[in-house]
Model the fold of this input.
Amino acid sequence: MKKPVNLLLIFIPVAVAADLLGAGPIFVFIAAGLAIVPLADLLGEATEELAAYTGPRLGGLLNATLGNAAELIIAIFALKEGLIALVLASITGSILGNLLFVLGLSVLLGGLRNGIQTFDRRQAALNSTMLILSVVALIIPSLFSQAIDPDLAAEKAFSEGVAIVMITIYGLSVLYSFLSQQGPLAREAATVHPAKWSVRHALLVLLAATAGIAYLSEILIGAVEPVVAALGLTEFFLGVIIIPLIGNVAEHLVAVEVALKNRMELSLAVSLGSSLQVALFVAPLLVFIGLLFDQPLLLIFTDFELIALFSAALIAALIALDGESNWLEGAQLLAVYLIIGLAFFFLPG
Done:
């Protein structure tokens, strides 16, 4: 049975043709964004198919590595074009989207269908601790950079040092999940299913989807500045709200689907796990990728981003700690997301 999201594959030739024929930037941006969505879904599906052959532990490692590949690719092309503010905003937006929008929608719909849903408190506590740690790791460089010598070399060295620590703790969390099948990334093992594709098929789809996302990301990022000028939006708003949805919508749907099936523990782990991967792996990795393009990426966020990140991490951790959820808590998370979205919409560029 074909997924409804695969219908969006028609936008791949539309986006390519629109770019080559010089169509309006808004149309090009929308077409490229819609085209990336099914490719991101195919990339995730190919990863899960390969995980079915490697077993749950190696499969979890594979998913932990490629879980946010689509978003990483988009960020790399934005970084290549020097859109530093867009990259940092997309990091913020991805974390906020997972903690508030995805988790909120999952808890709301899951609660409406199934009533009060329960999950392992010990696992939730570990995830919450890692979540707070990841946000603190992003906040510290932003706050302490104000007291450091304004010399760019010192700030670069500081961000690179923090990035190394963040990747290290992420690697340790992967190792812990790999060895014990518990921890922030253990949910990947639970998604492994009997293989439907051959290894060759899965690899071909993985490579084709990655190449397609890369090509369309270049088109998408190329249209950002004209779209910002045409619509009067800020690059910051696009990065916080729009870009993360494009790269993560497929995984968002998975979190909601399993919540509706009363598997709230898995749904919670999907949203928290994705947030952790963005904060502890994608963000620091982009710091070093920026060096390849001579585009220094400092882990320095605005005060507004820091407030939003800390608020989201705190409320998500509090909801997860008691081992149960209800639809009202989901509505509360969505309310916070809408308030933050409105604030960023009206924030001047």
